[in-house]
Amino acid sequence: MYMKYIPILAALSFATAEEKSFAVVNFNDCYKDSKLAQHEREGVEMLQTQMGSLIESTQKELKEISAKFEDSEYLDTLSPQAEEELRAKQDGLQERLQSYQEQLYQIMHQAHYQAIYKLRAAVSTAAQKIAHENGFQYVLNQESCFYVDPELNVTTLVITEMDREFDQEMASAQEAQDGQASLEQAE
Asked: For 108, what's the count of Cα atoms within 13 Å in the CB-facing half-sphere?
C-alpha cells in the first residue's frame, strides 16, 4: 500500500527547503470552500429535493390508503372487488416507494461521484497553473503528508484559481444561454 509513495518521497528527498520545488493542496478545503464545489452541492441538493418530494407524496398517498384499511367501518362498505383493488393500489404504491428510494440512493451516489470527479479535475488544473506560475515541480494532496511547512500550502491560491475559472465558465454559459434566447425570440 505504501509502495505508491516511494517515488514521491524519493523525488522530494532531493529537494531542499530553499528550493521549494513542491507545494501542497488541501483537497478537503477545496471541496468545502470553492465555488465549483458549492455549485455541485447545490445541484445534488436540488436532485435530492426533487426525489424527496416524489417520495413524500407517495408516502402520503400510501398513508391515506393504510388508514382506510384500519377503518373497519369503511372496509365494511367496500365490496370484495373494491377492497382487492385498494390492496393492489397499496401494493403498487409500496413498490413505487421502494423504487423511488432506491433511485434516490443511486442518483445521490452517482451525483456525488460526478461532483468529486469534476472537483478533482478542477483542483488538478488549478494546481498545475499555480505550479507553473510559482516554479513548483510537484503539487501534492496534503492528505498524503504527515507534516508540511505551512509556507508550502497553496490551497488558497488553488481555490482562487478554481473560482476564477468557474466564474469564466458560468459567464460563458450565460452568454450562450442569452444568445440562444435571442435567437428564439428572433424566430
From this structure: 13
Backbone angles phi, psi at 24, to 5 degrees: -130, 155
- Distance (Å, whole) CA 48 – CA 42: 10
Residue with cell 490551497: 155
Report the alpha-carbon distance of residue 89 to residue 83 in Å, rounded.
Answer: 10
Per-residue pLDDT of the chain (187 residues; tens, 9 = 90+): 555 555 555 555 555 545 668 999 999 999 999 999 999 999 989 988 988 898 999 999 999 988 888 888 888 888 889 889 988 999 999 999 999 999 999 999 999 999 999 999 999 999 999 999 999 999 999 998 888 899 999 999 999 999 999 999 999 988 888 777 666 776 6
The answer to whether the Cα torsion of 25, 29, 35, 41 is positive or negative is positive
Cβ-contact 144, 30 below 8 angstroms: no
- Looking at 3.30.910.20, 3.30.565.10, 3.40.50.11900, 3.50.50.60, the CATH number of the domain 2-186 comes to 3.30.910.20
- The span from the CA of 68 to the CA of 153, in Å, is 63
What is the C-alpha to C-alpha distance for residues 64 and 66, in angstroms, rounded to an integer?
Answer: 5
